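Cont'd.
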Amino acid sequence: MNKFSILSPEHVAPIRNLTLRAKMIVEGTIAGLHKSPFHGFSSEFLEYRPYLVGEPARKVDWRKYAKSDKAFVRLYEDETNLSAHILLDKSASMLFGSGAVTKFDYARTLAASIAWILVRQKDAAGLVAFDEEIRFYMPPKSTNLQLKNIISYLEASTAEHETRCGAAINSAAAMLGKRGLCVVLSDFLDDPESIAMGLRHLRFKRQDILAIAIADPLELNFDGRSDYRLKDLETGREITIDSQTAAEYFNSGMAGHRSELSGICRELKVDFEEVSTDEPFHKSLMRVIDKRRRLF
Amino acid sequence: MSSFSFFQPAYLWALGFLSAILFLHFFRRSVVKRMELSTLRFFPASAVSKSRVKKLLDILLLLARLLLVAALALVFAGLHDRSSPLVVLSDPGTVVYTWIDPSASMEYADGGVSLGLRAEAIVDSLIATLPSSAERYGFDHGSGRFVSLTDKKSHINADTDKGEQGFSGRFGQVNFNETADAFAAHTAHSERRTVFVALSDFQRSTVDAFDSFSYKLTGDNKKVICVSLMPANPYNYSVRVRSGALSGGGISVVVHAAGAALDTTYVELTVGELRIGQRSVSCKADDSVSVAFDLPPAKDGAWGKVELRAGDPLPFDNRDYFTLSANRHREALIAGDTRRNRVIGAALKASGAAFWNSIVLKEGNELTYEDINAADLVIVNGFNGRSRVLESFITGAGGDKGVIVALDPEREDDFGRSFLRSAGILPTAQKVNKAESGVSPVLTDTNSAMWRGFPAMSSGNSRVYGYVSPLAGGTLARLGGSSSALVAAVSRSGSDLLIISTPLGVTQSNNLCETGFFVPFVDRLGRRALAGRGQAEEHWYAGYAARNPFFGGGRAGTLYGIDGKLAATWSSQPNVRIDKPGVYSLVSSTGEAANLAVSPHPIEGEMVFRQPDLGISGSIYCFEAGKFLERMGNLSNNVWSYRLWALLGLALCCEVLLWKRGSSEK
């Protein structure tokens, strides 16, 4: 068995405890790295500043002192205390799952994992949960209690209501003041124009955005073999359709939607990542980390 | 109740494939699964409509496949509408028998093509239309049996001497009994469906024969289809010699126009090779006119013909033949007072010694049956008393003998007066009339065949002083314009006789025998009495059996055509038949020769047609020829089969189109 196979959704899904799940994923992911991400996250050099009297002498950069005969102190990026918001879509459409986990399960697991990583490296992590509007807001903090609270909320929350992804992001952007990072976990099944408006607002608020589109494998390739009586998880609307027509329309519709979304993100300089729920968590997390190594 | 049936119902097992198709359809049909999906935003209304259309197409595809199999099965099973009588001709297992009316009336050619040729063409079409596996037979009138028509040609009719150039019909009564028996024998042990197709103009005599024996043609699995070639507006002109032609005398011919008026044309008389003359003639529709010719003296047995120059569809009866009977020896028997009757014999002799071979005078009470049998003409005059022989002869209708009875007003026991009265030929109340100064006999005319040649209707010298009246019958001459002097009467038994109201011989009742009126008068009386007599023996009709003149005589004879070709040899058979009209020479084994004139029977050219009796069996159908051909054309390969093939093609198209559509989308 591959050492990472235990991080596959079907193995992780039975673990009800999200804390344990997140820890397992994060540590499993980090164990696979050649270099500790903690250093990467928190030891990035930012600038020098003159040594102030009274400060501990260990802070002095002796190499710089040797070269310049002046005492300087190195400032590291982690010390800027990254403020990250995790925006989680908890609309009813996220309840869809053809495999071991639903999109919502996958998304909140990823959210917990990211929060874990952020808090572990002393960054402030906050949480915004939304469906057709913002349902929950937890301002960013870098304490373990914050992580505990985030995970507790994620464990307790359920997906419901319709998606108004764009409007919710727009509302969230209004609440954010400080420059920071926004990780949006959603299936983005909303009007692309509306989503663009929300993302544009976030960018306006000087937020780096990482848009993670959670998709079920069936959504990525609808390949039915029978006729369907389909029910919309959000609206409850039902239709009967044959598999061929369903695949034809859904696949082309979904591909078009993703393409449009991707174009919007490219235009707004938003990092867009598509994650399938049958993908092992660590892989998804690695892709996110790789994408945002500069920030984390 | 459905009127559909199958020629090969065994093929219906193929309908079992329908269940296989249904099974496959339902087996492969996807079950509708309920599924909750994150969003239906990518399914516009058109997607649902499209899906519904696909469902509909799936059902259509199923129907097309079912139709395909069903149509194939039905085609092979031979679905047909059994209420249509002709559809049976599409059955590959059918045995078809054709019969073409061989009668002479089928020579009727209106528009250039005879009915017989049309019948042959119809049979050819029929044979070409039949399925190749269907057996087909045609009735060979020569051999009297059905022969196989393997070469798809129908020319097995009566006399096909002319091959494809014409149709030569047979004279005489159609022997349909022979055909029906041959058909019954041919189909006796057959279980197969048989169709008897009769093609005829259904002229009265033919249809009578057909109706008499059509019951032999019907039965289980047997159908009779009558194809009527009856002309639309039939017409025919004919000429006929009315009575025996006498050398040196006259001949009367009758021209008849049936169905249409005969415009002025002419009748031509030929004796031997010599054209004697021609008479102009015209006739109203459905009427007859008589034309008289004077005949020149000719040798015994000379023959002649009359010919009507008219272009009508049926030409064979535009010509009639006769033989001159100059040397035909006839015998006259004059019964009564021989002394007074001698003058009658003398008058007969004077009128034509060659005509009257012998004249026998007998007392009335001395008559024997032999005397009467030997006589051609019996004249009863001046006979008092009764004669059982004579009574029996008169009441028994001596069909081939002429009878003249003269009434005697001077004698109460006159045979004529007493017997004819008791026999109902004369009225019971008889009156004897006396004319002191006498009355002259007045003829009814001078231009009829009987009185032609008399210079005037009345003879001033001739006087009748005593006569009996009234007389019953058709008046041929009168006395002074009032009482009948001569009548043609008919006895209760149907025999006709001439009755004169005054004696003929030497008598005080008239002076007829003392005038020039007497000889021609007696001559015409004799000829009139003989007119139409003995025709049964003398007149020959083509195709009809006649008494063999050599029957019982121990002799034989040979019949030659006028061209000298041998036509037949007759020995001792009771009846003989000559097939074609014309003049023949009959030579006996003892060397005696005589000519025979053979005419077409009047019934052959009769324009009376009717549909056959369809009976109650429902197995006999009758079609007009045009309709038959039309329906045969529609029927070719079976109407239902045609429709089924069309259905099959349609289903196949549906299958291909719908199937391709499905596969391309996949």
